[in-house]
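The step that takes the researchers longest sounds almost clerical: writing a folded protein down as plain text. Below is the pair of lines this work produces for a single protein:

——
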Amino acid sequence: MASLKDVAKLANVSLMTVSRALNSPERLKPETLARVQAAIEETNYVPDLSAKKIRGAHATPNTIGVLALDTVTTPFSVEITLSIEETARAHGWNSFVVNMFSDDSPDAIVDLLLSHRPDGIIYTTMGLRQVPLPAKLLTLPCVLANCESLHDPVASYIPDDEQGQYTAVQALLAAGYRRPLCLHLPANHLATVRRRQGLERACREAGIDPDTLA
């Protein structure tokens, strides 16, 4: 993650000048301020809120920041964030959650998250989906829970919807049912697509044309 020194070096100014740009921009010449702001944007620098605490305070070590997209709306998603907190605590780590909603500005929320200087980030969502990752998130170790990265190669932990559906349909077929009916989310939902794949695999193995099913 970029530091104040990185910004100062790129803008070719002193640390004091960068500090003034952040805290008292009116004290700088417009051209100097513009140069510092350009350097801040280029380095993805985020001000450190922990540095603004009273003298002698320090940033909390071993902290995981959880970015939670729309997770307050379903019990399953809430369980994910609670499990993260419990597991982190069991290993001597702290965690905090920053909630984000679909109509929020991702950059602003990510800046808020990073301003607390976490050691790593877990990005979790309500419902399995593919998400674009703000570049600033990737300045720290980052893993995804219940979602996948749309572009970047980032580790993700997701339910195996295809295998789960396959196993469920196999059980129905073994019990003698030949036309399993599966109720899903909307057809374009990522979980629906993979569950349909599981259903089709189980049916084909049993000699059933899945296209004849509802």
Notes: The longest helix spans residues 75-90. The CA atoms of residues 28 and 41 lie 18 Å apart. The longest strand covers residues 120-131.
